[in-house]
Amino acid sequence: MLKSLPPLKATPLKDKLSKQGISRREFMKWTASMTTLLALPIQFSPLLAEAAEVADRVPLIWLHLAECTGCSESLIRCDTPTIDTLLFDHISLEYHETLMAAAGWQAEENLEHAMETYPGGYLLAVEGGVPTADNGKYLTVGCKGHTGLHIVKEAADKAAAIVSVGTCASFGGVQAAAPNPTGTKGVGQVVGKPVINLGGCPPSEKNIVGTLMYYIMFGRLPALDMYNRPKWAYGARVHDNCERRGRFDAGEFVETFGDEGAKQGYCLYKVGCKGPYTYNNCPTERFNHHTSWPVLAGHGCIGCSEPSFWDAMADFEKPLGRRDLHSLDATADRIGAVALGVTAVGIGAHAVASVFANKEDNS
Ligand code: SF4
Ligand code: SF4
Question: Where, by residue number, does [4Fe-4S] cluster 2 bind (predicted)?
Fold first, then answer.
């Protein structure tokens, strides 16, 4: 259905790819690997290619609240753009404080224009937690001085679907760490609508772009875990896919950073690795063009994709202890039992197309 709509961006995806020296063959390889990542049968690969090409029909509003902009930075700061970063750029980014050229009143107008033009049809991505204490006054954005709380509620009201990008937007992040004087919360706790959480500090570009692609293809949220994270990305513990897992099972541990065990690639549990408590696909997807991830680089996972990890996982270079490990294993079983399943939210092709249809009827 999206195919019949006019693109909101001028440059077709194939031109963008060829400008970056990415061949059609490489693109098809990417669609195959993204299809596998999304836990879909490989027959969905051509559909994914089609969804990527028509992503320029989907309006995206990206808000920044209480955060460091690290999630955006991680997505866009590549010396060589990947297909994931090019696709992010290809989706029609209507408002993004870091990337748009507009400033001041013009920026405010862009946001209002996007919300008015595509009511019920735009994707809303939020980066950052929402300060709620004293009616949200600890965060104001833009020349009108609206609070982040006001802005996110207004934008969420008419969004077809909402994605919290990163741990701050998902669960409050470092702003929500004790004693949390600003009363910061995750987006899902303030907007009263279903929100998909992409935990991580930052989340990988694959998890961001894969989630957007899933929406565009199916018009609904993917299966989610008990914290509303997509199961295709957060369904396994870091520990389960870690290349040092054999060392853990063999009882071979780094005792202090820089010791002989560290040189041999032993398990980092005793120097604080929280991989056994953390659900994310870092070991399989890695970062920076799939080159590395923290444990491969020699430091333990700090559990950045889990709620309250600043409080719950500290001290980051000391183990939590076996008792917690066992209780976490019990949590793993619960996650399977209470998984939310696929939730229809009326997004993607249907939602966007109906907005365009209304626009045409009214014009
Ligand atoms: S390094 Fe961490 S994630 Fe890897 S096996 Fe050891 S405890 Fe598990
Ligand atoms: S390895 Fe752990 S701390 Fe590092 S990004 Fe992945 S989940 Fe976060």
Answer: 239, 242, 267, 273
Regarding whether 181 and 256 lie in a shared domain, the answer is no
| Residue 228, in any domain of the structure | no
Beta strands 130-131 and 140-141: pairing type? unpaired
Q: Is the CB of 275 under 6 A from ligand 1?
A: yes
Please tell me the total count of domains within the chain: 2
Same domain, 163 and 266: no
Place of tokens 């490989």: 42
Indicate whether 98 and 183 sit together in one domain: yes
- Cα-to-centroid distance, 138 and ligand 2 (Å): 29
Q: Does 273 sit in the ligand 2 pocket, CB within 6 Å?
A: no
Residue 115 CA, ligand 2 centroid: distance in Å: 34
Q: What is the CATH number of the domain that holds 179?
A: 3.40.50.700
Q: Check the annotation: does 68 bind a ligand.
A: yes
pLDDT tens by residue, 115-129: 999 999 999 999 999
Burial 329-349 (b: 16+ CB within 10 A, else e): eeeeeebeeeeeeeeebebbb
Is 261 near ligand 1, meaning CB less than 6 Å away?
Answer: no
Which residue segment(s) compose the domain that 292 sits in?
238-338
CATH code of 313's domain: 4.10.480.10
| Cα of 268 from ligand 2 centre, angstroms | 13
- Establish if 227 belongs to a structural domain: no
Is any ligand 2 atom within 6 A of the Cβ of residue 74?
A: no
pLDDT in tens, 157-183: 999 999 999 999 999 999 999 999 999
Taking the C-alpha atoms of residue 60 and residue 145, their distance in angstroms, rounded to an integer, is 23
Residue 232 located in a structural domain:
no
Average pLDDT of the chain? Answer: 85
Q: Which residue among 174, 305, 308 has the greatest number of ligand 2 atoms within 8 angstroms of its CB, and so is best to mutate?
A: 305
Other Cβ atoms less than 10 A from the Cβ of 178: the count is 8
Which ligand is closest in space to the CA of residue 275?
Answer: 1
Same domain, 287 and 308: yes
Cα distances (Å, whole numbers) of residue 165 to 169, 294, 321, 338: 6, 20, 30, 23
Name the residue with the closest Cα to ligand 2, atom 1: 301
Q: Give the distance (Å) from ligand 2 centre to CA of residue 207.
A: 13
Is 265 buried (19+), middle (13-18) or exposed (0-12) by CB count in 10 A? Answer: middle
The predicted structure's pLDDT at residue 259: 97
State whether 264 and 156 are in the same domain.
no
304 among the known binding-site residues? yes
